[in-house]
Amino acid sequence: MATEEYTRSELLVDAAWVDAHKGDPNVVIVDCEVDAAFARGHIPGAVLVPDNYEKNPDTGRLHLMNPEQFKAMCEGLGIGDDTLVITYDHSRSLTAARLWWALNTYGHTNTKILNGGWRAWINHGGAVEFGRAEKRDVTFTPKRDDSKLATVDDLKQACEVGDSIIWDVRSDGEWDGSNSRGNKRVGHVPGAVHLEWFNLLDSTTNEFKPQAEILRILTEHGITPDKNVFTY
């Protein structure tokens, strides 16, 4: 599927684009899978993210690494301030989008997701590599931007405001409380709507569904452009 059909098409690339630019000196392709999957084969020149949730190692929780930790990770991957980062995975862009978000949170907006991930690369007939890329000497400057993050107080206020909608993207079990996922409390935020994240992706190609279909699905759940949307 061509990425041009999306309103924010600049956030995605297709496999043909990656194939044409994978050797560009300012491009770093990041595989967001685990080590075993990376060893079975990856896009030539790709580097493996050491933790595909970018967790703070001091806590082990899903809170994002602190600036110093994130800087060290990025520089270890060869990501510098001027690098164009392409993220991909074999998990319907779950962990690729996580790294995209983490990079944007630390001010590195020059980041795109390979639409369809590893499956798109294989379907494209792209070459497969098994080795490790050489380390690049770069400098990454973290510039934390919390403008797209919400606090608990923000969410509490959103529960009481008519122009806001709270979108629970978790699994059915987490939504109905039958799966705690290790949390002390179960259930969902009062008034939230439930639409698990993968419903916006094609289960066959792992690509994002066409924009018109995504808009239809969101609208059916009350998630519309006139609302302030909070996700969790």
Describe this structure in words.
- The protein is an alpha/beta fold.
- The chain has two domains: 3-124, Oxidized Rhodanese, domain 1 (3-Layer(aba) Sandwich), CATH 3.40.250.10; 152-231, 3-Layer(aba) Sandwich (Oxidized Rhodanese, domain 1).
- The protein contains eight helices and eight strands.
- It has helices at 15-21, 35-39, 67-77, 94-105, 117-124, 152-158, 172-176, 211-220; strands at 12-13, 27-31, 47-48, 84-88, 111-114, 164-168, 193-194, 228-231.
- The strands form two sheets. The protein has a five-stranded parallel β-sheet with strand order 1-5-4-2-3.
- Helix 2 (35-39) links the parallel strand 2 and strand 3 (47-48).
Describe the structure concisely.
This protein is an alpha/beta fold and 232 residues long.
* SS element count, helices: 8
SS-derived structural category: alpha/beta
Rg, Cα atoms, Å: 18 Å
What's the CATH topology name of the largest domain? Oxidized Rhodanese, domain 1
**CATH architecture assignment name of the largest domain:** 3-Layer(aba) Sandwich
Distance between the termini: 28 Å
For the largest beta-sheet, the strand count, sense and barrel status come to: 5 strands, parallel
From the spread of the alpha carbons, the general shape counts as globular
Mean pLDDT: 94
SSE order: EHEHEHEHEHHEHEHE
CATH superfamily of the largest domain: Rhodanese-like domain
Q: Give the low-pLDDT segments.
A: none
Strands, total number: 8
The number of distinct structural domains comes to 2
